[in-house]
Write a structure and sequence with these properties.
Elements: E1 9-10, E2 18-19, H1 24-31, H2 35-42, H3 50-63, E3 81-86, H4 92-105, E4 111-116, H5 124-136, E5 142-145, H6 152-160, E6 165-168, E7 180-183, H7 185-198, E8 204-207, H8 214-229, E9 239-240, H9 246-257, E10 265-268, H10 271-283, E11 293-298, E12 311-314, H11 317-332, E13 341-344, E14 347-349
Parallel strand pairs: 3-4, 3-5, 5-6, 6-7, 7-13, 8-9, 8-10, 10-11, 11-12
Antiparallel strand pairs: 1-2, 12-14
Helix pairs in contact: 1-2, 1-3, 4-11, 7-8, 9-10
Length: about 350
């Protein structure tokens, strides 16, 4: 078996050569596992298959590997760069996550490299090829990904190169070994629906996100749970799949208001779709909240600035970015993280876009 060239090789008695200084990432590559698995073995975690544990421990023994301690100097093999991949930069959703990541990285000495996976003015496939090419040059220490759709090519590329990564607000099933940071979508949606029910609304329209997204499934489930608790049947006419864009909120609001029994309140799957609902209701001559109440989700910077100020479920987007940085840095340093699945709490921010049916204050 050929070995990489370099200086300072040593080896066990069987003559297998390994580098004198081995990082967690290099150790993982030689053992054919992820850096997270190596970290679990180093920290005596029980959730590692016996055969895998034996293989990793054998490589550790052969290399004379000494794990870096917290607070120590950064490995010379690191570049001081962290990639952040977001869908786009034209939404408050992405900007809030970027703000949290920047704030968390600022005192660490790491620099942020920002990439977008979608833009109306760019070739999406070209952007992905450029990102994969940059990744192949080994110029990043870790990545934080906010993906609009499941992009298995990106995740597989990171795994193949043993680059630590954390997903923010996952859109699909990530598997058992992928670390992620999200929010309590079910609880947030149930709380928003309960609030509208408490005002007296009984026909509440729901404009969700893409049906395959985890957050859409959880928010719809929370909405349905609140209706069930109030002994109200689910009316499928009131449930519409969206795409988290303003024009979809506009389109579905027009359709909802054309029903024989239109809703008296609309729960939009995010703030952008809620703004689309505002525009549609204005066009129809309907007032918010006197004629129709509107609730959003995210609490982006625009929510308190529109007229009337938007009642919305606050998703702690900046905090999600900060927490993702915290976990990513631990993975880069070969240290364990407390949990692969982190969900930060949501809460309802009540402003001026909701009132009882008929507009009573």
């Amino acid at each position: 078996m050929s070995m990489p060239t370099g200086t300072g090789h040593t080896g066990p008695t069987d003559g297998t050569a390994v580098p004198l200084r081995l990082t967690v990432r290099e150790l993982a590559a030689r053992a054919g596992v992820s850096p997270m698995t190596v970290s679990r073995v180093l920290n005596k975690r029980p959730d590692v298959a016996p055969e895998t544990r034996e293989r990793v421990e054998r490589m550790i023994a052969q290399s004379g590997f000494v794990p870096q301690r917290s607070g120590g100097a950064r490995s010379e093999s690191r570049h001081g760069l962290v990639d952040l991949v977001v869908p786009a930069l034209d939404t408050g959703y992405s900007l809030e996550i970027v703000r949290g990541v920047e704030a968390a990285l600022e005192p660490t000495g790491y620099r942020l490299v920002l990439s977008c996976t979608y833009s109306s003015s760019r070739d999406v496939a070209k952007q992905e090829r450029m990102w994969l090419a940059k990744l192949s040059q080994g110029r990043t220490d870790g990545a934080i990904l906010v993906l609009y759709a499941e992009q298995s090519r990106r995740l597989e590329a990171l795994r193949r190169r043993h680059v630590p990564f954390v997903i923010v607000d996952p859109v699909g099933d990530l598997g058992p070994d992928v670390p992620s940071v999200g929010a309590t979508n079910w609880a947030g949606a149930r709380g928003a629906t309960e609030y509208l029910l408490s005002l007296g609304h009984r026909r509440i329209g729901f404009i969700g996100g893409p049906p395959e997204h985890i957050c859409t499934v959880e928010r719809l489930s929370g909405y349905r749970s609140a209706l069930e608790a109030a002994d109200l049947p689910l009316d499928n006419e009131l449930v519409r799949p969206g795409n988290f864009l303003e024009e979809m909120g506009y389109k579905h609001t027009i359709e909802l208001m054309e029903l024989a029994q239109p809703p008296t309140a609309i729960f939009a799957g995010n703030d952008s779709q809620a703004l689309g609902a505002y525009a549609a209701l204005r066009q129809l001559g309907k007032r918010v909240p006197e004629d129709v109440s509107v609730v959003g989700f995210d609490d982006t910077l625009v929510a308190p600035l529109v007229t009337p100020p938007l009642t919305t479920v606050r998703q702690p987007l900046a905090d999600m970015g900060r927490f993702a940085v915290r976990n990513l840095l631990r993975l880069i340093e070969g240290r364990p993280i407390s949990s692969l699945r982190v969900q930060l709490a949501t809460n309802l921010v009540i402003r001026g876009s909701c009132a009882p049916p008929g507009g009573r204050s």
